[in-house]
Amino acid sequence: MDSFDGIIEFVAVAEKQSFSAAARELECSTSHVSRQVSRLEQRLGSALVARSTRLVSLTEAGNQYYQQCRELLNGLQQANEQLGSQQYQLNGVLRVSLAGTFAETHVVPALISFAQAHPELRLQLEFDSHIVNFVESGFDFAIRLGQLQDSGLVARKLVKRSMMAAASPAYLERRGIPLHPEHLRHHDCIVNNDHWTFREAGKTVTQKVSGRFYCNNQHALVNACEQGLGIAYMPGRNLSEQVNSGRLISVLEPYWYQDINSWVVYPNRRFLPARARLAIQYLLDHFADWHE
Length: 292
What we know:
Strand order of the largest sheet: 4-3-5-14-6
Structural class: alpha/beta
């Protein structure tokens, strides 16, 4: 059984990227963590961590070993939970990466409600639209919108969404109304990416766009659109209030893409911590009847 010594400390160091932070997490001394990891490396005959004065990173062997150890610890935790009461008293930190207005206005309140049912659970929510490296970041899962490229992840559809294009009355009076996605080449577009997806004759078409305003924050994009900086194209709920009030006018409606999804994304592994597994199921149930 001594072959298991140091694994918990190693996993903590890998996730915190720091011996001192791992020690605080485990409520022990930094020297104890360092000693346990060193003994583990000696038994394995391989360096697992690359130590520096500012940051601890994993070696290639350490990264592979970490993923296996994380699976083992998750499986052990799940086995312990299944032996106990079905009324889980979750604890620890639920780490979630989010992006977009939908996550801000709908997912966050749902996660807060989930946390309220588990008083010992702490939430760590971070907004970032970049691709998540679950091994390095330590996130339990992420909320993302649109097409997903990484086949090594599990993606479960949270909600189906529809796109909408709109511009201010002043902009359309000044620049004219686009009647086809190709006309966007001659317009200023308010962008968070420069390729917009539309539907035409049952097929998906992509139009490259450009403009004077680039931002990855939905509220800023809507504000720029209202101020007349160009045409915006985003999930309909982000623009519907402005269109209904007349502050914006919808355009290109026959070509709007109607099947863009928000996803819960997490590592493709056999065991998930109970906090992640139950939070994901809570979100799926919460948004089961949600409509754009």
